[in-house]
Automatic annotation (TrEMBL):
UniProt keyword Transport, yes or no: yes
Species this protein is from: Anthoscopus minutus
GO molecular function annotation: SNAP receptor activity
Cell location: Golgi apparatus membrane
UniProt-recorded name of the protein: Golgi SNAP receptor complex member 1
Any one GO cellular component localisation term in the record: SNARE complex
Residue ranges of the region described as Disordered: 28-49
Amino acid sequence: DLRKQARQLENELDLKLVSFSKLCTSYSSSRDGRRDRYSSDTTPLLNGSSQDRMFETMAVEIEQLLGKLTGINDKMAEYTNSAGVPSLNAALMHTLQRHRDILQDYTHEFHKTKANFLAIRERENLLGSVRKDIESYKSGSGVNNRRTELFLKEHEHLRNSDRLIEETISIAMATKENMTSQRGILKSIQSKMNTLANRFPAVNSLIQRINLRKRRDSLILGGVIGVCTILLLLYAFH
């Protein structure tokens, strides 16, 4: 029952983290679209903060799921350490360690994605403030001087750099997801092989004997060929 609950929570966390990562990736581009569409101060606050509220809601939900999964892992640890547990203690410890590794990976990915989101939001707010100051300066002075052009060019360079950074982050996160999936598959294969080896020790012993017999036959055949070769050489030279 505990393993079933843990798997359900892990599946929910996997879906939530994927959505959370997509929200982080699309945050900057959507903020750029809103700034291009609404250039005045009459933009409703709800449009500008809807993704922020979505971020807070998803973060709370993921933290709750991580807390529940941590509790399930603690209960599994208490069960493996309790008296009267069957003799499959090694298999139980392996299963518990696997679930702990998954929990650790999800926790690390959540904190990393959350930190990236906060950094992007802080950078977007800073760039928005800089853009607002530039537009205020242009409207107040009414002169398109050299300094304003330099500010606009620098702002455009920063936006291009942000886009490149976001693309790099997206590629890195996709690579991490693929590596995590491959690691899970390899761990599953290793677990199945260990289970088979523990269930069928006689098969392992038979395979070892067959290998030893093959090796012995190879040594005998090599010795016979060597002796025959030496006798032929002695006969030829004689």
